[in-house]
Design goal:
This protein is mainly alpha-helical and about 170 residues long. It is about 45% helix and about 0% strand. The chain is built from eight helices and no strands. α2 crosses α6 (about 110-120) and α3 crosses α8.
């Protein structure tokens, strides 16, 4: 029996702690800095005791909020969005967190911003039984509770691909 050469090779090992092992072609279209930020979210969530399902929520959130880029601008600058009281938004970072989440330094540090997100998710009663996008919506307080659903498949693929053992 002949096995095509492409199938005979060992799959590339992705080690969450080594960005050089991240596939150049990306995972479901997410690559480079985006995967490095996803790795930070996954590692931080795991260190805080959040299982795979929680890690997926964190990655989904950052995909929806910043396309997994740690950006220093937000909804006010890109869309002119304001807070319900009419003041301009102050959202920045991976999770587009506003000033009431923490300092600029905290919100722009991926691990700290992730911790801020998971601190709030962890206080949400029964978040594990909610629709993932609805749980995120309750933490992020955005306008569409189903907004994050579109990122669930990609986030699951990224978390699963990056969660294998590093050998």
């Amino acid at each position: 029996m002949l096995i095509p050469l492409g199938l005979a090779r060992d799959p590339a090992l992705i080690c969450i702690d080594d960005p050089q092992t991240f596939p150049e072609a990306g995972i479901e279209g997410w690559s480079g800095e985006q995967l490095e930020n996803a790795a930070t979210i996954i590692r931080t969530a795991g260190a805080l005791g959040f299982p795979r399902e929680g890690q997926i929520l964190g990655v989904m959130t950052a995909m929806g909020e910043s396309s997994l880029h740690n950006i220093d601008y937000g909804d006010w600058e890109t869309r002119g969005f304001t807070n319900p009281d009419g003041t301009r938004t102050t959202s920045i970072g991976l999770f587009q967190q506003q000033a009431w989440w923490g300092s600029v330094e905290q919100r722009m540090d991926p691990a700290t911003a992730t911790t801020l997100f998971f601190d709030r998710l962890g206080r949400l009663p029964e978040w594990q039984t909610m629709e993932p996008s609805h749980a995120i919506h309750r933490v992020q307080i955005n306008t569409d509770r189903d907004y994050y659903s579109r990122f669930q498949t990609d986030a699951t693929a990224v978390v699963d691909a990056m969660s294998g053992p590093c050998e």
